[in-house]
Amino acid sequence: MAALYNDEFGDVLDSILPVRVFTRRPRPTDRWFDRECRDAKRTTRRLERAFASASRRAASAVAAPLDGTSSGVTATAAIAKAAAAKTAWYKQQRLYRQLRRNKCSDY
Fold first, then answer.
1. How many CB atoms lie under 10 A from the CB of residue 32?
2. Local structure of 5: helix, strand or coil
3. Biggest CA-to-CA distance, the chain
4. With 0-12 CB in 10 A as exposed, 13-18 as middle and 19+ as buried, what is 58?
């Protein structure tokens, strides 16, 4: 019974969204992209995720007073944290780009 269901469901999905085949061609990394670059990139991505998370929390804190479940003080604090996270991310992003440019030109 389950196999019949899976087959029928698969046929319907294949008719709506046909399977697409694509070829992935991995590209070798640049020789100048070393551990320092990887660490800087990892830090930049971590700060980007922190900013996105802080922005979501700020948006929900701003929307919460409309429901009457939170105070405006927490919304202000959440907005300040989001702004600080954005500043930290932008600063790290500039440092990462500068490091990449320097490593590439030195190589």
1. 13
2. helix
3. 65
4. buried
Tell whether pTM > 0.85.
Answer: no
The whole-angstrom separation of Cα 80 and Cα 85 is 9
Question: In this structure, which amino acid lies at residue 44?
Answer: T
- pLDDT, tens digit only, all 107 positions of the chain: 677 778 888 888 888 888 888 898 988 889 999 999 999 999 999 999 999 999 999 999 888 766 555 556 688 999 999 999 999 999 999 999 999 999 999 99
Asked if 57 and 81 count as a contact pair (C-beta separation under 8 A), the reply is: yes
Question: Rounded to whole angstroms, how far apart are CA atoms 81 and 57?
Answer: 9
How many residues belong to the chain?
107
Q: Which sequence spans correspond to the domains of the chain?
A: 2-106
What six digits make up the tokens of 70? 């939170």
